[in-house]
Design brief:
25% strand, 5 strands, 3 helices
């Protein structure tokens, strides 16, 4: 199933895209799996996603942990930690 992936801040800058639509393979079940699969694409993906523990994620506009199942999500977002002020 196609999945829209949004990238923000330095993740976007390193990958070179703000969003894309991909169909991950069936074994990509969690956000951590998705990040690993994307990082394996190499180049800017590998650079931006090399340290998953530094990343935050959202599934269908809800903040989630990296162990969260993607399920039948339509949209995911990957971004660095957000600070407020």
């Amino acid at each position: 199933m196609p999945l829209t992936i949004l990238y923000f801040a330095w993740v976007r800058e390193r990958i070179g895209l703000s969003e894309e639509t991909l169909t991950p393979p069936p074994e990509v079940a969690t956000m951590a799996d998705l990040i690993g699969w994307l990082a394996a694409r190499g180049g800017g993906y590998a650079e931006a996603l090399a340290e998953p523990e530094r990343l935050r994620a959202a599934v269908d506009q809800n903040f989630v942990g990296l162990d969260t199942a993607i399920g039948r999500a339509r949209e995911v977002a990957i971004f660095p930690p957000v600070t407020g002020g």
